[in-house]
Amino acid sequence: MTTNQPSAAPWMSRWLVAAGVYNLIWGIPIVLAPDLPFRLLGMPPLEDPGRAIWQCLGMVIGVYGVGYLCAARDPLRHWPIVLVGLLGKVFGPIGFAWTASRGGIDWIFGINILTNDLVWWVPFGLMLVAARRASIARIDAPTRTSGSQPIGG
Predict the structure, then answer these.
(1) In a structure prediction context, what are the per-residue pLDDT tens digits for the chain, which is 153 residues long?
(2) Domain that holds residue 45
(3) Residue 98 lies inside a defined structural domain of this protein
(4) Which residue, 82, 94, 131, 140, has most beta carbons within 10 Å?
(5) How is residue 74 annotated by DSSP?
(6) How far apart are CA 59 and CA 32, in angstroms?
(7) How far is the C-alpha of 94 from the C-alpha of 101, rounded, in Å?
């Protein structure tokens, strides 16, 4: 007996691999050389405890990278990793805007939001929509053969 399990489109895995590699490339240097992005933007480096918190953030971003690489093997099954990633990529810019508006960080540092967050919103969102549709398809598969309508349909 074969089942028609929904499968992820190849682009989903490619985006998650890209996100995983990007996060590792971004996170590891923050842990090892936390002053580097500030120097590149002409900003003074952070002092402790901000510097230690910044390095911890680099570690978390690197760990997200590992998660994305794992999720790339089966994006529809590992949708919770994508969801957590998308939430971070939405709340990160909100936190940045709040901190910058209070003078806690220079606005120029927001340039990071383009590649760290915004570029991932659409593909991660589309993956979550696909995962939801796949979940509904799996739930409804037995009822469709008996003539029932799908949930919400």
Answers:
(1) 445 667 889 999 999 999 999 999 999 999 999 999 888 888 888 888 889 999 999 999 999 999 999 999 999 999 999 999 999 999 999 999 999 999 988 898 899 899 999 999 999 999 999 999 988 887 766 655 555 555 554
(2) 10-137
(3) yes
(4) 82
(5) -
(6) 10
(7) 11
For residue 107, count other CB atoms closer than 10 A to its CB. 11
Instruction: State the pLDDT at residue 2.
Output: 46
Is residue 119, in this structure, part of any structural domain at all? Answer: yes
Longest dimension (CA), the chain: 67
**pLDDT given at position 148:** 53
Please count the structural domains in the chain: 1
Considering the domain boundaries, does residue 145 fall inside one?
A: no
What whole-number distance in Å separates Cα of residue 76 and Cα of residue 71? 8
Residue type for 58, please? G
Give the position of tokens 């915004």. 118
The residue length of the chain stands at 153
Residue 5 inside a domain? The answer is no
Measure Cα distances from 104 to 9, 34, 82, 100, 111 in Å.
Answer: 41, 17, 29, 5, 16
Report the alpha-carbon distance of residue 87 to residue 54 in Å, rounded: 19
